[in-house]
Amino acid sequence: MTRRQKDSTHFGYVEVPLPEKAARVRGVFDSVAGRYDLMNDLMSFGVHRLWKRYTVEKAALRPGQRVLDLAGGTGDLAALMAPRVAPGGSVVLSDINVAMLARGRDRLLDRGLTGEAVQYCLADAEALPFADGSFDVVTMAFGLRNVTRKEAALAAIYRVLRPGGQALVLEFSSPVAPGLAPLYDLYSFRVLPALGQAVAGDAASYRYLAESIRMHPDQETLKEMMAAAGFEDCRYHNLTGGIVALHRGWRY
After folding, report:
1. Is 71 inside a domain boundary?
2. What is the mean pLDDT of each run of 10 residues along the chain (252 residues)?
3. CB neighbours of 119 closer than 8 A, spacing ≥ 6?
4. Backbone dihedral region of 66: left (phi > 0), alpha (psi from -120 to 50 degrees) or beta?
5. Residue 59 and residue 53: Cα distance in Å, rounded?
6. Within a domain: residue 190?
7. Whether this model's pTM surpasses 0.85
């Protein structure tokens, strides 16, 4: 094991001590929480909503199931999933960031999702505070790349799934459509920071977004990581030319 693997990790393109990454990521989301949803719509031209709906469709939820939405942020997935597990089921909206979780709670309350339908948990994806086999489905949308120890998070997800349960990880990935990569790079490193500055007053956080995507494992590597964590029948679905990929795995 190299020194880098033991003592440090990446925060975008910057090498930082392991304990620092979570705090830096927390700072990014503290900064952008207020404009997070607007920026998502602007950055993706609204397509992020289609990616999330596709994820929920693949989850094939049923009434009575219990779902954990990790890094659930402002609650987009939770809002789609809660009606599908009713009656008798519930969605636990979880995030490591207080500001994001509070915004998600407010948005879900505004939609009339109250009581047992949606619960909330401030939690680190690497050390989930739930018993083994607590959930039928675990989702994680655009959060895994921000985790310090991705292997630990995947192992934790596997642990809290019930036998027969499914994990779905929606994340930015590596473009596969011909000619898309250079255009995507231009958009990511020129347009996104400028948009972040104009709308959220924060170019640096959106520069980190672009860098963190490039440091995230590609489709095949993440599939192998899920298999190493114990998941079976691992597969992925490329969306929008591979800009985003939905990875799925089961605990049997």
Report:
1. yes
2. 63 87 82 83 94 98 98 95 96 94 94 90 96 98 95 98 98 97 95 92 91 96 98 98 98 97
3. 90, 91, 92, 93
4. beta
5. 10
6. no
7. yes
Q: Does residue 187 lie in a domain region?
A: no
Question: Does residue 67 lie within any of the structural domains?
Answer: yes
Beta-carbon contacts of residue 172 (< 8 Å; ≥ 6 apart): 142, 145, 213, 216, 243, 244
Write out the residue range of the structural domain in which residue 92 sits.
Answer: 3-177+207-251
Which pLDDT belongs to residue 77? 97
User: Cα angle vertex 10, ends 235, 243, to 5°?
Assistant: 40
CATH classification at residue 235: 3.40.50.150
Q: Give the chain's domain count.
A: 1
